[in-house]
Amino acid sequence: MPVWLLMPSLAFVAAFFVAPVAALLLGAFRLDGVWGFGHFSAFFAEPLNREVYWRTVRLAGLATLAAACIGYPAALAIVRLPARWRGLVTALVILPLMVSPIARTYAWIVLLGRNGLVNSLLVSSGSVQEPVPLLYTEAAVWLGLLQLMLPLMLVSLVSALENLPADVEHAARSLGATPLQAFFKVTLPLTQEGLVLGGTLVFTGCVTAYITPALLGGAKVLMLETLLYQKVNSGGDLPAASVIAVLLLLTTVAVNQLLRRASAARRTRLAPSGAVPKAAT
Amino acid sequence: MSYLRIAGLGVAYAKPRKGAAGNAVDALSLAVPQGQLVSLLGPSGCGKTTTMRAIAGLLAPAAGRIELAGQDITHLPAHKRDIGLVFQSYALFPHLSLFDNVAFGLRLRKMDAAELTRRTLEALTSVGLADYADRLPAQLSGGQQQRVALARALVIRPRLLLLDEPLSNLDARLRVEMRAELRRLQRESGITMLYVTHDQDEALSLSDRIVVMRDGRIEQDDTPAVLYNRPATPFVATFMGFENLFERARLPLAMNLPPAVTHVAWRAQAVAVQAPGHKGLQGTVQSRSYAGDRLEFWVQTAAGALRGVAPADAAPWGEGDAVSLAIDIGRAALIGDDRTIPST
Amino acid sequence: MTGGSRPGWFCAAALALALIFLVGPFFVVFIAGFSGEETLVFPPRSLSWRWMAHIFTVESFAASLRTSLVVAVVSTVAALLLGVPAAYVLVRRNFAGKELVRTLLTLPIIVPGIIVGLALLNYMVLVYDMPVTASLLVGHTAMLLPYTVRVVSGSLNNLRLDIEDAAVTLGATRLRAFWLVVVPNIRGGLISAAVLAFITSFNQVPVSLFLTGPGISTLPIEMLAYMETNYDPSIAALSTLMVLFTIIVVAGMERFFGFTRHV
Predict the structure, then answer these.
(1) I need a labelling partner for A222 at 20 to 30 A (CA). Which of A265, C53, C65, C228 fits?
(2) A151 occurs within a structural domain
(3) What are the tens digits of pLDDT across the range C139-165?
């Protein structure tokens, strides 16, 4: 019976997802019928490509860092909210995830454009003579990514904080820890999984973003996905596109695995009693 | 003539378990006459629920035969077996009213509306819940849900009713009340019932016969009186509440035993705790506890630890005190390889 | 969880900043949508309905809206038809390779949409001559499948197994038991899965990028195209409508079906 019920979905995924995607990815490794890394070396030989790759990783990392720094204290504030406000704030955090990224990112165009809010303020206050080009800069893309991904970090952290064993902080305080010590020695380590999960979601989300880099970076600040699009659309350069596809996938899978290992390694050192390390399970 | 006959039933574990070789149920055979209530009694993991689910058709046996009223139902799909099942967790349909819950099986049998209503209300009345017909299960107490589950299974007039620890989620007093209810219902309807439980008191009070199970096999299959007085194995003795169990080589007193006897057991009531110096075993009190009409003692003797009793108002001994034990040989249960051992 | 381990004001400030950051943009877009200006001047010197009215006259928006709706509905239905049985088996049965199957079915979430779109274009349309429309539907369905499987699995997990067995012992086949007893009790999860899938498909861009062309395009793609050559507040107006629509749908879902519990 399981076979009957699973066949349709498995067959569908195999035929229409796994097969085409695998074919695309494999194409990155074939040069004139020969298996090899020729496409990869060609790709990285070009300075523009290297720059785009590095920029993507860098901005994703910075956005993740900012999301964690803002997100953690914000999540702490959320879990301490009285029930009345909790529902409203949760809705405000989750709702953006349901809204089209175009609508969300468009606000930055309005704010940062030549006649946008920031420039209007700068010009009218006399700080500058001419509107400053704020769009199509790395900072703009970073802001857009941060705004897009922040809810993911918040949701992960709030969930982790809610799953803390009750009263552990109180226990630490009753044993003599200051609030700050209790936080760093008890709360933070116990919620690290939430941080890891949130960080992974944000990082991979940033690396695989299309709309935000397209709207806020344009052709001047290319990221991996906008580069991919350009390669296919204007250049018809399928091999390069395949290479980018492989890079995208590798980056997200690698980050995923790395962070999972780091979290598991630390976790085995925290036995239930919290103090005595035990052998890795 | 057996109404339910099981021969050589074998059921494999759903997932292979570390350290437990073999099957969940192995080479199990039993026969239930029509109109009787038979209990499957045993600790958790002994295979009693698995056996029940195999009879109901929710599990496929790996070996063996199941016959009901002469028909081989071993491979019959569950929904065609006409066997009712009352679940430990009641399994009431949360989205349906009590009426619709009880009428569920009747509707599937395409009974006509008037007859269906009549039978459903009759079933609800017989468990005293006709006034709650429109309520949802979530609005009822555990005991009430239990009765609805019973009504739902009985209303389809099944050939066999299986009950899987139906009272274990109820508190002690309700359990005793429901036991009497069940017995009454069974007598009145005459439906053959197979009852699964781990509680020996329940099995003793409800059953015409008890089947004690352990590790997927039957240890003893007998009437309650025989099981209570003449357990066939050390496991059954302990399970039926014999507090004192001794191997033949380490008996606390000299006895003349047939060669086939391997163990001897006494209930605590057969061991009287008396002042030190009386005839019998001498020992020291390890602990004592109050049981209302008597005091129960754990006493350490040269032959081992024994459990005994004394009247609550005549037992001044406390922990560390010396006492003597008088063991009533006449109330010993002899356990051995040969099942024809008479008691004493 | 009571406070005190960090200065309360610091966390409160962080939360305030986060909320402004998350919600502020909506207000900005809302105001821009009612701008009376010719271009994206912010703050606008006058307000007007003109751009709201204008978006209904743009042909590409109307046509692509129809396409987006059709694609969203069809792929949602397909994702449910494929995903519900799969979720049932994954939750109720144990078998060798179960985790592998689960991974396979949730793979599309990990793979960036743009890769899927490109892969389908190259290996379905170009090699197997599959029509672009079909590829678009297939691509969307593939991206939605992990969501339907996950949400429906969640609902099934919370539903006790024994009521299905009870229905069977009372005479129902497994299929009837599913229909009579399981479906009514996972209604909230099913509807939430459907709405989540619909919204995800409607807003989806990367998969559609390569699978659209003249005559067949989705609304988000057309919006991006419009922005390349027009610098008026039309998109702000359209975005405002889309946001309002999303808010109404999600709020309604939450009120009647407890949406956020399921997803």
Answers:
(1) C65
(2) yes
(3) 999 999 999 999 999 899 888 889 999
What is the least distance, in Å, from the CA of A271 to any CA of chain C? 23
- Span A184-191, average pLDDT: 83
In a domain? residue A41: no
A:84-113 residues touching chain C, CB 8 A cutoff: 89-96, 98-104, 106-111, 113
Chains contacting chain C through 3 or more C-beta pairs under 8 A: A, B
Q: What is the pLDDT of residue B343?
A: 45
| Chain A neighbors of C115, CB-CB under 8 A | 21, 24-25, 245, 248-249
Q: Which of A21, A115, A154 sits opposite C41 (nearest CB)?
A: A115
Q: Does C9 touch chain A (CB under 8 A)?
A: no
All domains of chain C, ordered by start, with CATH? 58-230+255-262 (1.10.3720.10)
**What range does the domain containing A13 cover?**
1-36
> Is C179 an 8 Å CB contact of chain A?
no
Residues B57-86 pLDDT 10s: 998 898 999 999 989 999 999 999 999 999
pLDDT band at A280 (very low <50, low <70, confident <90, very high): very low
Residue ranges of chain B whose pLDDT lies below 70: 1, 14-21, 338-344
* Bridge-based pairing state of the strands B244-247 and B281-290: unpaired
Q: Where are the beta strands (DSSP E) in B226-321?
A: 244-247, 261-266, 271-274, 281-290, 294-301, 304-311
**What single-letter amino acid sits at B21?**
A
Average pLDDT, chain B: 89
Tell me what pLDDT residue B43 has: 92
Total CB pairs under 8 A between chain B and C: 63
Average pLDDT of span C95-109: 86
Residue whose C-alpha is closest to residue C165's, from C176, C175, C174, C156: C174
pLDDT of residue C254: 82
Pairing state between β B83-86 and A34-35: unpaired
Which ranges in chain B belong to alpha helices (H)?
A: 48-56, 98-108, 113-126, 142-155, 172-189, 200-206, 224-229, 234-239
B156 touches chain C (CB under 8 A): yes
The whole-model pTM stands at 0.81
Q: Do A70 and C95 touch (CB under 8 A)?
A: no
Examine the pLDDT at C136 and tell me if it is beyond 70. yes
Categorise residue B329: left if φ over 0, alpha if ψ from -120 to 50, beta otherwise. alpha
Please indicate whether, in this complex, the C-beta atoms of C19 and A180 are within 8 angstroms of each other.
Answer: no
Tens digits of per-residue pLDDT, B90-110? Answer: 999 999 999 999 999 999 999
- How would you class A238 by CB atoms within 10 Å of its CB: exposed for 0-12, middle for 13-18, buried for 19 or more? middle
Look at residue A281 in the predicted model and tell me its pLDDT: 34
- Other beta carbons less than 10 A from residue B250's beta carbon: 10
Residues of B in contact with C168 (CB under 8 A): 57-58, 78-79
Number of domains in chain A: 2
Sheet of B83-86, strands arranged across: B83-86, B160-164, B192-197, B37-41, B209-214, B217-222
Return the number of other C-beta atoms located less than 10 Å from residue B192's C-beta.
24
Q: What is the ipTM of this complex?
A: 0.84
Q: Does one domain contain both A64 and A192?
A: yes
Say how many Å lie between the first and final Cα of chain A, rounded.
36
**Residue A52 sits in the same domain as residue A132:** yes
pLDDT for res A140: 93
Same domain, A196 and A120: yes
Peptide bond before residue C43 is cis, with ω within 30 degrees of 0: yes
Based on the fold, state whether residues A184 and A263 are members of the same structural domain: yes
- Domain contains A62: yes
Q: Distance between alpha carbon A145 and the CA centroid of its chain, in Å?
A: 8
Contact B105 C165 (CB under 8 A): no
B and A touching (3 or more beta-carbon pairs closer than 8 Å):
no
